[in-house]
Specification:
453 residues, alpha/beta, Rossmann fold, 2 domains, six-stranded parallel sheet, 17% strand, globular
Length: 453
Amino acid sequence: MSEQRPLIIVSNRGPVTYDRDAEGTRIERRGGGGLVTALRGLREDHDVTWIASATTDEDRVVAAEGGGEVVFVAHDPLAYDLYYNVVANPMLWFIQHSLWGPAFNPTIDHAFNDAWCDGYVAINRAFAEAVVAQLDNSPDAAVFFHDYHLYLAPRMVREARPDAKLAHFVHIPWPVDWTTLPEEMRRALHNGLLANDVVAFHTARWARNFKRSCTDLACGVDRTFVTHHPISIDLAEFDALRESEEVLAAEATLDRAEKLIVRVDRTDPSKNIARGFRAFGILLDEHPEWRGRVKLLARLDPSRETIPEYVEYRAAIEAEAAAVSARYPGAVEVQVADNFPQSVAAYKQYDVLLVNAVYDGMNLVAKEGPLVNARDGVLVLSENAGAHEELGEWAVTVNPFDVWGQAEALHAALTMEPAERRRRAEAIQAQVRENDVAKWVQCLLADLDRVSA
């Protein structure tokens, strides 16, 4: 373990959020999302200040009070809406997951230009100013930016503090083609990232793509160390969850067939849920021997339901599930709820875990499920999920657009010999246990050591 050091973590979402209970007493809740969990080790072992957006009224009160381990940036609500709901999501998210259909969407109009200037640029500047203020208090601190919300902030900090140690981890895929955005915007994003000493991704593929897109834009990467480290999960957390009262209770009520296919996702277009349902329907069409013997259980977490593209995609999910259920009643069970114990219960019981993402920076479902599964379940994994680089050797690989191929992959997984199922399941578990989230954190700290040297 590296020696304790001052660190400034910068992300849109913070490790905690605040509210008031019915009696008016301030209450603290742990922030959601995998990033918070992944970086918990840094907070425990180092002198960490975390800069994040204020997302509740009480967060804004805390921001005004100042001080503390978490520094909340209180944004203008309209600017934040433009930054988050117009530019970051869906525009950047859709570009980086290759979700736009260029014949019709997106359209870069005057309203989007306003959202860029008055939202994304403005909020990134507010974050940069907060970082600079912290560096004034702790000039030796290293700064860790995270994800697609903050591509411009590193350049702003670099201009104000040329000697600062800056690193940026991008948690989602990086495409080669950025021509969806006007040249000025895509150059700003790349040059913002290149102001960091270190830019890191989950996989070699995304790191290569970043270097390539920088070359295409004639943005030099000479002074930036570009690397990749696959994020993972907290082993202790999932070992405890597996036997927790909430998970055992959910497991006791789980309605399964002879064989169970499980998927656990957010209702995000990148997760490819609708095609997965279609592939399951094809499996039952083409292999009648599975009718009445296999069930698809989908545990889905609602996602970004104020954004029209997400509302439309949820409707598409429901339509595909209904189409399969109409032909094969009882073959599909869909639950849309924020209920992680039920997801872990499903992880424990699957015979096949379907992860067919269109694109994914990593996809931790592909690691969480095999870690707790008790049935030597088979992982069916998209070649475009970042996890495939690490786990593909032991998974049944699928192309996310090929629904026929996915149906045949499900059949192959369901009919795989027990010894082969066990070999693959044990290999994935070993890989995840050897390369847990603590190792990911250590790699990030090693990057900082390289910068410091």
